[in-house]
Amino acid sequence: MRFRLTPRETSFYDMFAASADNIVTGSKLLMELLGADSSARAEIAERMRAAEHAGDDATHAIFHQLNSSFITPFDREDIYNLASSLDDIMDFMEEAVDLVVLYNIEELPKGVEQQIEVLARAAVLTAEAMPNLRTMSNLTEYWIEVNRLENQADQIHRKLLAQLFNGKYDAIEVLKLKQVVDVLEEAADAFEHVANTVETIAVKES
């Protein structure tokens, strides 16, 4: 790690940790959605919307701190990218839940639960990794595992698309379900973007 002669603003670490913890909350709401009937989904969507707003607040707090700090713990561009990618994850998860409710989807296709399980695992790993930014330690296994999970998510997504286009669903239902599984795939991609940004930061700080 590079030796520094100047003090660093350390509140960023706590804000990144809070943002990641909120993503875990979002992933739990996604899991809850799987087992809920249509009458309970609107309430879950409301809680997810509140979590997404909390994520927005966390992101804005990071940006405000970034704009008002003379000294930052690592490159400003990396702080911005990390905060934005964390925010993207919450946005995609909230969008998926909202679409299920808005489209009044009664039954999600088999395989969506695997998508959500991958996201839940990536959320926990990300929340565990954020505090380690303080010391830049124990991060390599994190980004390797998240990249592995994203590859797994890609495979699940392709199988889901094949299932949607096998003739079982009518055209309108295919459009609805495809939009949901595509947004969940975007959430997996956003987790990978976070991991890649963390790797970039760690390499620069080594």
Describe this entry's structure for a reader.
36% of the residues are buried. It is built from six helices and no strands. The chain has helices at 11-34, 38-68, 76-102, 112-129, 140-164, 171-205. The model is unreliable at 1-7 (pLDDT under 50). The chain has 206 residues and is mainly alpha-helical. The chain has one domain (8-203): Phosphate transport system protein phou homolog 2, domain 2 (Methane Monooxygenase Hydroxylase, Chain G, domain 1, Up-down Bundle), CATH 1.20.58. The protein is globular, with a radius of gyration of 18 Å.
In short:
The chain is mainly alpha-helical and 206 residues long. The chain is 78% helix and 0% strand. It is built from 6 helices and no strands.
The CATH architecture would be Up-down Bundle
- Principal-axis shape equals globular
Class derived from helix and strand content: mainly alpha
Number of domains: 1
Tally of alpha and pi helices: 6
Q: How large is the radius of gyration?
A: 18 Å
Count of extended strands: 0
Report the helical percentage. Answer: over 70%
pLDDT averaged residue by residue: 93
Q: Give the class-level CATH name.
A: Mainly Alpha
Which residues form runs of ≥5 with pLDDT under 50? 1-7
Order of helices and strands: HHHHHH
CATH superfamily: Phosphate transport system protein phou homolog 2, domain 2
Proportion of beta-strand residues: under 5%
What is the CATH fold-level name? Methane Monooxygenase Hydroxylase, Chain G, domain 1
Largest sheet: none
Q: Ends: how far apart?
A: 4 Å
Family: Belongs to the UPF0111 family.
Pfam family, one: PhoU_div
Protein name: DUF47 domain-containing protein
InterPro entries: PhoU-like_sf, Put_Phosphate_transp_reg, UPF0111_domain
